[in-house]
């Protein structure tokens, strides 16, 4: 059963300017494995994290660096959740989180569906 849906859209050039103005955003928003990625990939991952928070119904107990967007060998994006964020997802009975990412024409978008077996 679907228990939450989230979507987010990020203007890539504006996001890149924000990172240039405030370099510490990298540490606050991204896991160590994500920090070396190119701006369009970081923008898509930021959109994914925002979309996940929306699908969860709020950010209580969720920490940005506990949400990592990784890739399966096929290239499919997946969440690697840890810490209190993983605990929040489990406590809400969420058994699966689906993620789709895209970036084109200066925009990055993410769509998240959270599912529960109950």
UniProtKB/TrEMBL annotation:
EC supergroup of this enzyme: transferase
- SUPFAM superfamilies linked to this entry: 4'-phosphopantetheinyl transferase (SSF56214)
Q: Give the cofactors, semicolon-separated.
A: Mg(2+)
Give start and end of each 4'-phosphopantetheinyl transferase domain: 4-86
Positions bound to Mg(2+): 8, 50
Q: Which InterPro entries match?
A: 4-PPantetheinyl_Trfase_dom, 4-PPantetheinyl_Trfase_dom_sf, ACPS, Ppantetheine-prot_Trfase_dom
An example Gene Ontology molecular-function term: holo-[acyl-carrier-protein] synthase activity
Keywords from the named record: Cytoplasm, Fatty acid biosynthesis, Fatty acid metabolism, Lipid biosynthesis, Lipid metabolism, Magnesium, Metal-binding, Transferase
Q: Which reaction does it catalyse?
A: apo-[ACP] + CoA = holo-[ACP] + adenosine 3',5'-bisphosphate + H(+)
Q: What is its EC number?
A: 2.7.8.7
Location of the protein in the cell: Cytoplasm
Q: Which family does it belong to?
A: Belongs to the P-Pant transferase superfamily. AcpS family.
Q: What does this protein do?
A: Transfers the 4'-phosphopantetheine moiety from coenzyme A to a Ser of acyl-carrier-protein.
Q: What's the protein called, per UniProt?
A: Holo-[acyl-carrier-protein] synthase
């Amino acid at each position: 059963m679907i228990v939450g849906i989230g979507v987010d859209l990020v203007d890539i050039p504006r996001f890149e300017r924000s990172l240039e103005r405030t370099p510490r955003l990298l540490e606050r928003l991204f896991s160590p494995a994500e920090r070396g990625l190119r701006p369009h990939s970081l923008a898509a991952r930021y959109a994914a994290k925002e979309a996940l928070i929306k699908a969860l119904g709020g950010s209580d107990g969720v920490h940005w660096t506990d949400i990592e967007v990784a890739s399966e060998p096929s290239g499919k994006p997946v969440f690697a959740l840890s810490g209190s964020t993983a605990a929040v997802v489990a406590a809400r009975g969420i058994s699966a989180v689906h993620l789709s990412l895209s970036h084109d024409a200066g925009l990055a978008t993410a769509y998240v569906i959270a599912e529960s077996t109950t």
